[in-house]
Every structure is written in C-alpha cells, then in structure tokens.
Specification:
This protein is 36% helix and 13% strand. By secondary structure, the chain is α+β, with helices and mostly antiparallel strands. A 3-stranded mixed β-sheet has the order 1-4-7, with helices on one face. It has helices spanning 6-15, 30-54, 65-71, 85-97, 104-113, 184-193, and strands at residues 120-123, 131-133, 136-138, 154-159, 165-166, 179-180, 199-204. It is built from 6 helices and 7 strands, in the order H-H-H-H-H-E-E-E-E-E-E-H-E.
Length: 206
C-alpha cells in the first residue's frame, strides 16, 4: 500500500472548487501554490498514517514502542541498566507470547520469544523404593539419581548458548552495543514467570 502524492492531492483539492473558468491552472499561480502547500501537508499525514500501521506490530514499532512496553509493565526488574533497544524488543515480544505457567511448553514458548529457539525442559521425580504394582513398576531403578522430595517440584530448562542479538539500522539508538550476548534477561524472565512452588534450574547447551 502506498500513499497519495502531493500532486494527486492538489488535483483533488482543485476538483472540489466550484466549476468555472475563473480558477487559474498555471503552476505558478497563487491559487495553485496555495493548493500545493495544502496538498503537501495532506501527503505528510497520509504517509504518517501508513507508518502508524507498523506500530500495531511490537516487532516493528518505533514511535509507540515505549507505550507497548508500558502496557506490559516493561522495562521490568529483569532489565539491565544498559539494555539496548534490541534487548528491550526481545523482552517485549517474550512477554507478549509467553507468560509462564504450569506447562513445560509455556517456558519453551517464553524462551523462544526472547530469541532462544530450541530450549528444552526436563522434569524430575523423587527417588523412591522400588515397588511392583498391578499397573507396573514404580519407583527408582538402578542407575537413577538419588533425588530427594524437592525434585518432584524441579524443572531444568536448557537454553542454546549461541544467541547473539545484533544492532539493526533504523532500530538501534545511540549508545546501543553493536552486539549483545546477555543471558541475564532470559534467566530473570523465566524465573519471574515461574510459580512460587517451582524450583527452576537454567542451563545452557554445551
């Protein structure tokens, strides 16, 4: 979709005048210069309206980016003091697409929104005495870890270790680093999303 040109707006404005030969059509005439000035402003508003459509997508928003952040209570306590616009955008998208919860998939989705695609979640269980029941074998077997009861509430999320966010022209601000590798943001966000009963371990792929 493209905006209308100033010349198109000038012609439209001219067509709104009452019909008659009294109106000059020469570009240098006072009337045409007046219409040209008005048309340039209409073109500017038209162009800005199209730019505003991009603001509806937080991955592209520039002018309304801070309003997007405020709507999701960002920057949060997880944000480092020198956080770049790329890190802030990743935090915003992560907050939108995943809020944490009771399922392992919620944390994988949250990590994915923060740029850590391919995260995995491992759940544990307490080591108990071996028991044979009508439905099969329960409890620990030889080789299992000797986990205490707290391990029933423990998950380990493993993140990729090669996530790099690079500065993008027209998006970065003065002072932003050209690249950032920080894991502080994703770790804090994951722990913030976890319920109080969950013991969340965070590791990185070798």
């Amino acid at each position: 979709m493209d905006h209308l040109s100033a010349d198109t707006y000038r012609q439209l404005l001219f067509s709104l005048l009452p019909p008659g030969r009294i109106w000059p059509t020469a570009p240098e005439s006072r009337l045409q210069r007046l219409l040209e000035g008005e048309a340039q402003e209409l073109e500017r508003v038209d162009r800005r309206a199209l730019e505003l459509l991009a603001e509806a997508d937080p991955r592209q928003a520039l002018y309304l980016f801070e309003e997007w952040e405020a709507s999701y209570s960002l920057p949060s306590a997880c944000a480092p003091a020198d956080q770049s616009i790329a890190d802030r955008r990743a935090a915003l998208v992560g907050r939108i697409v995943g809020q944490g919860g009771m399922r392992a998939a919620d944390y994988i989705e949250l990590a994915d929104g923060l740029g850590y695609q391919g995260a995995t979640v491992e759940e544990f269980r307490e080591a108990t005495v071996e028991v044979d029941t009508a439905t099969g074998h329960t409890g620990a077997v030889i080789g299992d870890d000797l986990n205490g009861e707290d391990w029933d509430w423990t998950w380990r999320i493993t993140l990729p270790s090669d996530v790099i966010r690079q500065s993008v022209i027209n998006e970065a601000q003065i002072g932003d680093p050209l690249r950032s590798w920080g894991d502080e943001l994703v770790e804090c966000s994951l722990r913030h999303a976890a319920p109080s009963w969950l013991i969340l371990q965070i590791g990185y792929q070798a």
